[in-house]
Amino acid sequence: MLFPCLKQRSFIILTVLVALLVETQAALAQVMTHELEALKKEIEELRRSDAEKQRKLDELQRRIQAMESQSSAHEKPSVPKSALDKALNEIETPAEQLPPPDLLSRRVGGSTFRLIDVSLDALFAAGTSTERDESLQRLQGGDHDPRKRGFTVQQAELSLTGAVDPYFTGETHLLFLIDPVVGDTTVELEEAFLTTQSLPYGLQLKGGFFLSEFGLINPTHPHAWDWLDQPVINTRLFGPDGMRQAGVRLGWLTPLPWFSELYLGVQNAGGETMTSFLANRDFFDVRPIGGRPFVQRDVKSLKDLAYLVRWENFWNVSDEVGAKLGISGVFGPNASGPDGDTRIYGADLKVRWRPTDNFRGWPFVLWQSEIMQRDYTADRFFDDSNPDEVINLPRETLRDWGFYTQALYGFQYGWAGGLRYEYASGSGASVLTFNGRDADPFRDDRHRISPLLVWHPSEFSRLRLQYNYDRSDHLEHKDAHSVWLGVEFLYGAHPAHKY
């Protein structure tokens, strides 16, 4: 009887254990379910919290933008207290920031050379024309013009600028070009000069290799032009690369009641960049002025240098309108003979309208015009070395003159449209190389009309679409049609585009 009793007790115990196990699992499952639900609720709460934070951030951002817009709309420029302040007021001052670290800083003699700003600006163009490439080299006469069917590398400019010491700042601009005809790569020095920082009496001295400060276009680099190509009259008088040479220039900020500055400069008269003066033989082989032969001249005295004078004035006509007026003149010897000389005169005007409630410079209107004339006194030339081709040219003054006028309208943020008209003409025959002035591509009568559309994705990139209608006596069909698309980008410490 003992054994069956034990069996009965064991069965009861086993039944109790199984019941306890089942109850425990159920309890554990219930606990886990509660914890899972709690975790889900916590996750959902966090999500709602994040969404609320994002909503508040978006709302704050909209309020900030609205306040900035209202502040910009009601902001009025401060009234300048002096003529210098009036001019400086026209220059947009970037937000105050810490100076960038020097890329290179080392002791040189008793001073510290600091290379601060390094930048690269690249210009490319693509397009086509009714003229063939050979004719385009004369029609688009500037070295930085788009002048080939297909693609043109207009330039890549490497700029190095910085403070040399407490007395001087330095600038160097190097250009990299690819010849659109033969494809050769060219590296050239565009500018390299020093400028004083603290001379008394409003004086400033610049020395080195630099662009002559004649007019508005010649002293500026191609990336600062509004249109893709340089004006026709500039190409004729100052050559494909602009007038520039080694020399010195003195500037004087006059005490007149408006911003007024006077420049006096002297530079070497020779080289391919001094087209209208002593130039060189290689240049005359391609573009002889008036078809005249090249005569080598040495520098024997100060009269064999080129001298420049410019007077520049600026006025704030109103809070929204500013105007700059300048007159220029440059004088020196030329390569036609020992008594040949050249005189170039010019006047320029630039007017800008921009409302006080503008948004990053938009909207705006820029109107710019230049007119100039060259008196090229060609010396008498006689050559009987070849009895069958005796050359006897009398002394004669060849006159070339022209102008351009252009207007650019920034109608919407990042977008602008413009129109430029040009005319160039002259008097005095072109001989030898050319059968009269009408056959001379650099002295004939010339008209050009150029509509332009510009898009700035940012201050550091630009796309330009330009159409040129040219009417010129030297062309076989008298007129030509060209379309160019220009792309520009810049990076580094180069100043952004100004509007």
Could you outline the blueprint of secondary structure elements for this entry?
Blueprint: H1 2-74, H2 83-89, E1 104-108, E2 111-115, E3 117-129, H3 133-139, E4 150-163, E5 168-178, E6 185-196, E7 203-211, H4 232-238, E8 244-253, E9 259-268, H5 281-286, E10 305-316, E11 321-333, E12 341-353, E13 364-378, E14 381-383, E15 391-393, E16 396-412, E17 415-427, E18 446-458, E19 461-472, E20 479-492
Antiparallel strand pairs: 1-2, 3-4, 3-20, 4-5, 5-6, 6-7, 7-8, 8-9, 9-10, 10-11, 11-12, 12-13, 13-16, 14-15, 16-17, 17-18, 18-19, 19-20
User: What is the number of helices?
Assistant: 5
Q: What is the average per-residue confidence, as pLDDT, rounded to a whole number?
A: 85
Uncertain stretches:
71-82, 91-101
Can you count the beta strands? 20
- Judging by the overall fold, what is the CATH architecture? Beta Barrel
Structural domain tally? 1
User: Which class in CATH terms?
Assistant: Mainly Beta
